Automatic annotation (TrEMBL):
This is ABC transporter permease protein. One of its GO terms (biological process) is carbohydrate metabolic process. Belongs to the binding-protein-dependent transport system permease family. It comes from the Bacteria. The chain crosses the membrane at residues 29-51, 89-109, 121-142, 319-340, 361-383, 423-444. Residues 85-443 form the ABC transmembrane type-1 domain. It comes from Streptomyces glaucescens. It is a multi-pass membrane protein. Keywords: Cell membrane, Membrane, Transmembrane, Transmembrane helix, Transport. InterPro entries: Ig-like_fold, MetI-like, MetI-like_sf, UgpAE/MalFG_permease. It is found in: Cell membrane.
């Protein structure tokens, strides 16, 4: 009797437990159905390509012959790959460090700016520009031609403001017209001159349209004679517009060359110097008796300063890193600014009341309290930098592409950009994945610890 009662009492309890389990099972099935499309998409776009690349890295270029670890050993014997590893290391060390430092400084300074929101928006705007567009912008900005590249236009303007520029970079003397070219690019008269002589120095290679404003005909100046103790002459363009005239003779329509530096040289030393007038005339007064030569210094013919070769082999990597900084500085500033807004203000005020200056507060309180945020920003940028491809591929010109290459661009070049060796390219992809995974794991752990 007792056993029967126990069985009858246990049936409702078991039935109620079964009823409770059914909704749970149904909920799990529904959740799985909702997650399944995302899992399929993740598997198709992430898991399968990774597994395929790992398998492909063990085959040759054709994909038919198994070569084991040969692609991995070849990868570290290839000079181009070693250069890509070196450049990637430079990126990983320099770019995240500069970005984190700039973001920290700007985040602290923005707090003291009246229009802080507008300033943040202005710095964050480059994040809305795609890497392709940013690469094109900076490719033009870094152009070596000052008429196209804004950076070189600024550099040339500053350089010319302090050192000046030559007026006649294309000018040269006619052969057999009494001028010889020195090794340094200067011109000197072949005949010895004495005070009282007059000399005409004809040059060619200057377009009439390139003459300085205010240049006057040289014919009248060429007809003047020198007085006692005076050495004079004229520097002119030995070219008659429209044809005609005679070489070595100053024609009525031939122009003088103003602002040309002229020197009187005796025994290898410059004893006097002057600048030509608008009609090209010059005059040295009060010269002692003796033998002289007249020289046109090389500075008159120096080519114009063309600026800095930003995209040359030496500067191409720093130049591309500069473009990357322009894009990502706003990102670092906003993230660090968000962390800065959560700092306990009482600690900062207490430090000020204790007599600490702003630098001491920044170094000993702000930075230590922001260390977790700075670490997350730095590691996130490290992950992003390892995958950089667009800027390097677009900004670096073809001749210096190898000097600027990083692992991502080298992987593409080896696989599809002419190398046609997808086995080696897959090995490079696996190497890049192995380098990125530790940083990703570190970041995930940091997020989990912060949530706890």
């Amino acid at each position: 009797m007792t056993a029967t009662l126990v069985k009858e009492a246990s049936r409702p309890a078991a039935a109620s437990a079964g009823v409770r389990r059914r909704p749970r099972r149904r909920g799990r099935v529904v959740a799985l159905l909702f997650v399944l499309p995302a899992l399929l998409l993740l598997g198709a776009l992430v898991v399968y390509p990774v597994l395929f690349s790992v398998g492909r890295s063990f085959f040759d270029a054709s994909g038919n012959r198994f070569v084991g670890g040969e692609n991995y050993t070849e990868m570290f014997r290839d000079p181009a790959t070693l250069k890509a590893v070196r450049n990637t290391a430079i990126w990983v060390v320099v770019a995240p460090t500069l970005l984190t430092g700039l973001g920290l400084i700007l985040a602290v300074l923005v707090e003291k700016v009246r229009w802080a929101t507008a300033f943040k928006l202005l710095l964050f705007m480059p994040m809305a520009v795609s890497f392709l567009a940013a690469g094109i912008i900076f490719r033009l900005a870094y152009d070596e031609d000052p008429d196209k590249g804004v950076l070189n236009a600024a550099v040339v303007s500053v350089h010319d403001a302090f050192t000046g520029t030559s007026t006649y970079p294309t000018a040269r003397a006619r052969d057999g017209q009494g001028l010889t070219k020195e090794p340094d690019g200067a011109y000197r008269t072949t005949a010895a001159l004495t005070p009282g002589d007059t000399v005409t120095l004809g040059l060619v290679g200057v377009q009439p349209k390139d003459l300085p404003d205010g240049a006057e005909p040289a014919h009248a100046a060429a007809g003047r004679t020198s007085g006692p103790g005076e050495l004079s002459g004229v520097v002119y363009l030995d070219f008659t517009p429209g044809g005609g005239g005679e070489q070595g003779q100053v024609d009525r329509r031939e122009s003088g060359l103003p602002d040309m530096r002229v020197e009187a040289v005796r025994d290898g030393e410059v004893v006097a110097s002057t600048t030509t007038a608008p009609d090209g005339s010059f005059r040295f007064d009060g010269l002692p008796d003796g033998s002289y030569t007249v020289a046109l210094p090389a500075a008159n013919f120096a080519p114009p300063y063309e600026g800095v070769s930003w995209l040359g082999p030496a500067l191409v990597t720093p130049a591309i890193i500069g473009a990357y900084l322009w894009i990502w500085t706003g990102f670092a500033m906003v993230l660090i600014g968000a962390g800065l807004s959560t700092l306990p203000r009482d600690a900062l005020e207490a430090a000020r009341m204790d007599g600490a200056n702003e630098w001491q507060i920044f170094r000993r309180i702000t930075v230590p309290l922001l260390a977790p945020v700075l670490t997350v920003v730095f590691v996130t940028l490290v992950i992003n930098v390892m995958k950089v491809f667009d800027l390097v591929y677009i900004i670096a010109p073809g001749p210096v592409q190898e000097d600027a290459t990083v692992l991502a661009t080298q992987m593409w070049l080896v696989s599809f950009g002419g190398g046609n060796n997808q086995g080696l390219g897959s090995a490079l992809g696996v190497l890049l994945l192995l380098l990125v995974v530790p940083a990703m794991v570190f970041n995930v752990r940091r997020f989990r610890r912060s949530q706890r």
